[in-house]
């Protein structure tokens, strides 16, 4: 029986939740937007908790998530593109928080386990979701939209474009219309490929292995006697023993 503890790196729960958020994001309507924010907020809070954050920090993050869900729900009553702006902004903030906390905990792992693998895959999917929300926000605030192709474009197009770019498939049926959009698309492709060939590849190839602790090289020292004499090199002395003076 699995016992869940704070700081236990239970990312096998985070991964399927992120997948559900990815599936819900294209279903962009008044009902699914707050639900997607709530699920993403759950990922955010759980990533803090399972990464060993203090109880006060987890409660603070929970308050931020509740506020984001309320804002996303209230935003449905706004006119024009305001609901999407609120939804995408909340998504960006929550994705960034979940990515940083999860990745920070993965770096601290001394042994590669299934928790490490699922955590690394969760970060990869969250990166794609982060860029999805960035593209949606750009499409709403830019009068010309995000894509070079004529619209209208729904959330499915943004999710599709983001993950096609992240995986460098690049079908070409949708392309960014602005210079900033092209730069961000290139950045996402670079991040996606570098993450796969470095982080994920290293994690998968080292499953079950334990990382050896880093060894800090010791500086050679000479021991100086209080009376001015020079003694042979030895370990660090006690408080009443000759002091250590580093070699010049």
Task: Tell me what the structure shows.
It contains seven helices and three strands. The chain is mainly alpha-helical and 248 residues long. The protein has two domains: 195 residues, Helix Hairpins (Orthogonal Bundle); 32 residues, no CATH class. A hairpin with a 5-residue loop joins strand 1 and strand 2. The longest helix has 28 residues. It is globular, with a radius of gyration of 25 Å. It starts with 10 loop residues before the first helix and ends with a strand.
Topology:
Blueprint: H1 11-24, H2 32-50, H3 55-74, H4 82-107, H5 114-141, H6 155-166, H7 179-205, E1 221-224, E2 230-231, E3 243-246
Antiparallel strand pairs: 1-2, 1-3
The total strand number stands at: 3
Order of helices and strands: HHHHHHHEEE
Assign an overall shape. globular
Per CATH, the architecture of the largest domain is Orthogonal Bundle
Give descriptors for this structure:
248 residues, mainly alpha, Helix Hairpins, 2 domains, 4% strand
Quick summary:
With about 250 residues, the protein is mainly α. The protein has seven helices and three strands; from the N terminus they run H-H-H-H-H-H-H-E-E-E. Helix 2 (about 30-50) runs parallel beside helix 4 and helix 5 packs antiparallel against helix 7.
